[in-house]
Amino acid sequence: MSLAWRLHDTCPENRFPGPRMTATLPTAAQPRTVVIYRLGSLGDTLVALPCFHAIERATPGAHRVVLTNFPVSSKAAPLEGILGGSGLIARAVASPV
Fold it and tell me: 6, 16, 30, 80: least buried by Cβ within 10 Å?
């Protein structure tokens, strides 16, 4: 199965200027589970939001699981606390780095 990335110059739903990446999969190859590997903290999650949206558009109906690190500080919000309930991910699994 191949994931095709397309670069769009403009997009009406994009609040930020500049190019935007979107991903598409052939309809016959829709995965049931997608594992997303993402390390970092709050700022990294915010920067990765366009990627999470592209993955969600490319894999509608899939169970999206994020494999991530534990928050580096006890005061830092875990990824699931930020994206949980958004529909972008089903759950997050934290692992030591």
Answer: 16
39 contacts 73 by C-beta, under 8 angstroms: no
3-state secondary structure of 92: strand
How wide is the angle at C-alpha 88 spanned by C-alphas 87 and 89, nearest 5°? 95
pLDDT tens column, 14-24: 555 555 555 66
> What is the spatial distance between Cα 3 and Cα 22, in angstroms, rounded to a whole number?
10
Q: Which of 24, 28, 8, 7 is nearest to 59 (CA)?
A: 24
Sign of the alpha-carbon torsion through 87, 24, 11, 54 = positive
Q: Average pLDDT for residues 22-38, to the nearest whole number?
A: 74
Which amino acid appears at position 69 of this protein?
N
Between CA 68 and CA 93 the distance in angstroms is 6
* Beta strand 20-24 pairing with 4-8: antiparallel
pTM of the model: 0.67
- Mean pLDDT of all residues in 65-77: 88
